[in-house]
Amino acid sequence: MMKGYIENNQATKAIHLFHKIKDPNYVIFILLFNSCAQLGSDEGLNLTKSNALVKCNDLTYAQSFFDASIKNGVGMYAVMMNGYNKENNPLKTLNLFYQMKDKNHSIIYLHVIKALSRIGDYKLSQSIIEQIPNDLLHDNQIQTVLIDMWGKSGSIDKVKELFDKISQSNQYQYAAIINAYGLNGMGIQAIEIYRQISLNLIDEITHICILNACSHSGLVQEARSIFENIPIKTVSIYTTMIDCLSRASLFQEAQNLQEEYERSHPPS
């Protein structure tokens, strides 16, 4: 299909299709670079090449390509930061951030905050967060990753302060604060938030976060009640509930639940 797009001068569609391919092979990459050449933009070509290298986990070559580029824009920095975060190398993400002159872009701070979440250094996090412009602090995605970051560093007061400032929370922010409370052994508070959420904002991630929160706080009965009322139970939801029961040493109940899942989801 990519070849068809290229032959019909639809390089952009070919590139979009590439990003949907999980494990691109050599032929796919040749088609990708042909698409880039058709676009005729050096910046677009470099960005797509970097994306391709990061997607293949070839960060060494991607970094060499990045270093050799005369002028790297925000997109190139974002691609490299995303790659290093996925490789669990947050310090390299921060090194890229420190190199940048024009840092005030939401995509850059999203990757930086995710890196800080992995590092878990309160003072370092605070020093960088103070640099974020006020308008970006009102960005929904920025708010969500900040809640996650402060939760992982144990700064629950920061979590609550930030969440309380959000005028209308979305499903991701609710899930983030529930997860933050759960990580800090505050299962009761997590349940209180969960009970406030409109049904249309509760999804699989929210259910997993609340069951995990109950698990970390030993709230088995509450977890049972929540689990029983979940309308669509995915394999991840079953797995989380089984883990909750196992943590409480309720191994027989956990085994029964696993067998229930297997009966209702026979191999195809």
UniProtKB/TrEMBL annotation:
Superkingdom of origin: Eukaryota
GO-annotated biological processes: RNA modification
Molecular-function GO terms, alphabetical: RNA binding
InterPro entries cross-referenced by the UniProt entry: PPR_At4g14850-like_plant (IPR046960), PPR_rpt (IPR002885), TPR-like_helical_dom_sf (IPR011990)
Name of the protein this chain belongs to: Pentatricopeptide repeat-containing protein
